């Protein structure tokens, strides 16, 4: 069970002991929440005690002090100073009265890929100095290619043979033993380095220098990486970042409880393992058609920071080796711009910005199947599976003429996409057509990149699933196994649950209503009543249900009583049970969004009939965004929340923020960095923006104020932790920091607060 692997894979003895005391009553969710809570508590205690645990690659710093170093905490104090480590427990050996950084214990535990440990003393858990790049925070790691003892064979170009490397996700640098370096022919240039490498045991390693070499895993494109050449008899080490770059490990920031996959289907998946690897290539080519009178545009290359130039070239080379793009030397009429985004792991993402091209493209307008046509195939079904295509648009090849239209400019020259790039408004139509052609005459349902397979029993379901996987292999279609569901009794599909008992509404689409908190004051209650009046056609007998709420608005004192709570619950229940069904064939799809000071709200409507709701709170960081950033964040939230409904369709985004209209028609590259990231995240969607006053979109406005607690904002939490950690560890004395605070201009501080939070009430 996943729960048991989690418990026994935890290295922290205290957390494991806490979980084991709960016995058979322990659930996976409880185990995760308990572990996170205890980890956060221990981290806060370490921070309060100024305990630091740093491991080696670091630049030498000469520290001069007139006081000796304390053997208990590592600090330097005058005689008589009380040591903060007294009475504290070492996280390394478990003994008291000292910190882990000065621990002299020889017992060392190494984090393995699958959460196992090793007793080796020469463990190279390495960490770069600040000059080497950004620090990565890892929640959990999942091995995609696990081998015995966490070793993996990589092709080392300088030796022209395979070398067995050890994957160390705790290391920030690659290690190449000197004996392996001597075997290289020709030997790569060995450059001097001032870096010092130390192990967990604080022993210094003899570093000969650093070299650059190309390594390759299986048939994937080779990549150049830096290796520290070290005098050691141990095996070569691949660092955390290199492991990610090669696709050997990946980060997982969320844990979800999934329905277990039956063993018989696991065997089938293993038989078709190639269908879940790489990027597919559908038969034939696609053609982009320009409107009559289209005027070509040529965008100049955008300047790139010097620090990103080499990484940009490496990413262009990688995409070229994958045959996603190719170099262009001939003249082309159309030249688009691109936006370069740095991801959390340090890699770059190259995104086409085809604003001008989209305005001049003809859409094929290929018909999308109706929801009823899909569900008809599920009549009497008991077992369900759902397949999700990997990088769907990239699986479509473009003809030469169409490929020329996607030419884009960089500081390294022009390139063009050989495959359908994300962001073109005709992509979803062509993809639906190509997928239907690939899977024709099979008993399955298909809407864009989602394929539904069902059966009345295991035998019928498995037969249809195998036929779909066999056809995918034949037509070179690839699926994302992480997003697929196999052999389940129910699956979510376009706002519904396809279950063995029939079609049911998906509770997720009404969660924003069912979990809506009661209004805290008369103003919020008025907003709520306005929203209910707007939705009155979905709430039978609304006037009698909300009578007590209307009386509370007119009352001299606002006091929420059980009678009000009862009426509030009845209204929410009536609203959730009378929403409209979503029809994928419908053209008039609208997402209404709004942002308040503390929350985001979104409503999905088809032909002005409400289908689903969404809301969430904003993190402390997001609450300090400017208003236009908050409003665009609401758009991003609405698109992501209703992704299953709107992906592959042209939809209308309704907002009460007029400036959004003007900034969203500009090229992404001309927007501020934060808006750039948000605009890029909605690139896969075909959106039309419409402005309406807030009074005309009361539902989204109310949801943004009476929002649900945020449950899906782990990334922002990581950012907050990182920012606060940086602040707490600035190399500035507390007294100096206090002087800086006091010296800050009072008027500017008041102006800053006014911009962020508005004018004071008095």
Automatic annotation (TrEMBL):
Tell me where in this chain the Reverse transcriptase RNase H-like domain is found. Answer: 588-685
Any idea of its EC number? 2.7.7.49
InterPro entries in UniProt: DNA/RNA_pol_sf, Peptidase_aspartic_dom_sf, Retrovirus_Pol_polyprotein, Rev_trsase/Diguanyl_cyclase, RT_dom, RT_RNaseH
UniProt keyword annotation of Nuclease present: yes
Keyword Nucleotidyltransferase attributed? yes
Residue intervals passing through the bilayer: none
Please state what the protein is called: RNA-directed DNA polymerase
EC main class here is transferase
Q: Which GO terms describe its molecular function?
A: endonuclease activity; hydrolase activity; RNA-directed DNA polymerase activity
CDD domains xrefs: RNase_HI_RT_Ty3, RT_LTR
Superkingdom, taxonomy of origin:
Eukaryota
Ranges of residues in domain Reverse transcriptase: 342-496
Keywords assigned by UniProt, alphabetized: Endonuclease, Hydrolase, Nuclease, Nucleotidyltransferase, RNA-directed DNA polymerase, Transferase
Q: Which Pfam families match?
A: RT_RNaseH, RVT_1
């Amino acid at each position: 069970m996943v729960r048991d692997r989690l418990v026994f894979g935890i290295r922290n003895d205290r957390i494991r002991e806490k979980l084991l005391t709960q016995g058979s009553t322990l659930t996976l969710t409880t185990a995760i929440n308990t572990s996170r809570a205890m980890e956060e508590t221990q981290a806060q205690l370490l921070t309060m005690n100024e305990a630091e645990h740093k491991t080696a690659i670091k630049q030498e710093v000469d520290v001069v002090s007139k006081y000796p170093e304390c053997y208990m905490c590592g600090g330097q104090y005058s005689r008589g100073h009380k040591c903060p480590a007294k009475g504290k427990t070492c996280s390394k050996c478990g003994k008291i009265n000292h910190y882990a950084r000065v621990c002299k214990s020889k017992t060392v535990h190494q984090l393995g890929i699958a959460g196992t440990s090793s007793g080796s003393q020469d463990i190279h858990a390495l960490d770069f100095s600040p000059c080497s790049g950004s620090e990565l925070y890892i929640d959990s790691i999942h091995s995609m290619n696990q081998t015995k003892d966490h070793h993996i064979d990589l092709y080392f170009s300088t030796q022209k043979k395979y070398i067995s490397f050890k994957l160390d996700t705790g290391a920030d640098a690659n290690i190449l033993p000197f004996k392996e370096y001597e075997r290289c022919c020709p030997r790569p240039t060995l450059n001097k380095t001032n870096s010092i490498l130390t192990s967990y045991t604080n022993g210094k390693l003899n570093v000969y220098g650093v070299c650059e070499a190309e390594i390759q895993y299986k048939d994937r494109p080779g990549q150049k990486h830096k290796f520290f050449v070290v005098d050691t008899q141990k095996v070569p080490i691949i660092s955390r970042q290199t492991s990610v770059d090669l696709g050997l490990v990946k980060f997982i920031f969320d844990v979800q409880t999934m329905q277990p996959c039956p063993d018989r289907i696991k065997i089938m998946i293993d038989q078709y393992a190639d269908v879940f690897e790489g990027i597919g290539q559908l038969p034939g080519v696609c053609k982009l058609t320009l409107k009559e009178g289209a005027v070509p545009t040529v965008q100049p290359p955008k300047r790139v920071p010097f620090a990103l130039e080499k990484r940009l070239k490496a990413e262009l080379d990688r995409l070229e080796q994958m045959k996603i793009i190719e170099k262009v030397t001939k003249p082309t009429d159309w030249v688009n711009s691109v936006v370069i985004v740095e991801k959390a792991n340090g890699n770059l993402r190259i995104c086409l910005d085809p604003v001008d091209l989209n305005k001049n493209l003809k859409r094929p307008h290929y018909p999308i199947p109706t929801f009823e046509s899909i569900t008809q195939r599920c009549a009497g079904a008991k077992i369900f599976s759902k397949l999700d295509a990997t990088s769907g648009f990239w699986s479509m090849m473009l003809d030469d003429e169409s490929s020329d239209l996607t030419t884009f400019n960089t500081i390294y020259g022009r390139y063009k996409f050989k495959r359908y790039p994300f962001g073109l408004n005709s992509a979803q139509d062509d993809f639906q057509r190509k997928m239907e052609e690939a899977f024709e005459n099979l008993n399955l349902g298909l809407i864009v990149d989602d394929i539904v397979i069902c059966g009345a029993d295991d035998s019928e379901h498995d037969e249809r699933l195998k036929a779909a996987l066999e056809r995918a292999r034949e037509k070179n279609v690839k699926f994302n196994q992480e997003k697929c569901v196999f052999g389940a009794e129910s699956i979510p599909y376009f706002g519904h649950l396809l279950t063995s008992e029939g079609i049911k509404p998906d509770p997720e689409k009404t969660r924003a209503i069912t979990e809506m908190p009661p209004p805290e004051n008369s103003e919020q209650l008025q907003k709520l009543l306005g929203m209910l009046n707007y939705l009155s056609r979905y709430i039978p007998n609304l006037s009698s249900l909300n009578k007590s709420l209307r009386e509370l608005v007119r009352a001299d004192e606002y006091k929420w009583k059980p009678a009000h709570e009862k009426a509030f619950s009845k209204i929410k229940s009536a609203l959730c049970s009378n929403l409209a069904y979503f029809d994928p064939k419908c053209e008039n799809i609208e997402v209404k969004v709004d942002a308040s000071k503390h929350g985001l709200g979104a409503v999905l409507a088809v032909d002005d009939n409400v289908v689903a709701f969404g809301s969430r709170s904003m993190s402390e960081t997001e609450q300090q965004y400017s208003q236009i950033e908050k409003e665009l964040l609401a758009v991003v939230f609405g698109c992501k929340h209703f992704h299953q409904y709107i992906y592959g369709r042209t939809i209308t985004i309704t907002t009460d923020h007029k400036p959004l209209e003007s900034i969203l028609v500009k090229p992404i590259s001309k927007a501020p960095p934060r808006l750039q990231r948000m605009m890029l995240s909605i690139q896969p969607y075909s959106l039309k923006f419409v402005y309406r006053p807030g009074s005309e979109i009361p539902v989204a406005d109310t949801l943004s104020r009476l929002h649900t607690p945020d449950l899906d904002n782990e990334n922002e939490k990581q950012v907050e932790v990182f920012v606060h950690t940086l602040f707490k560890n600035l190399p500035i004395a507390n007294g100096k920091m206090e002087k800086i605070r006091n010296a800050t201009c009072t008027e500017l501080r008041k102006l800053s607060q006014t911009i962020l939070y508005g004018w004071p009430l008095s």
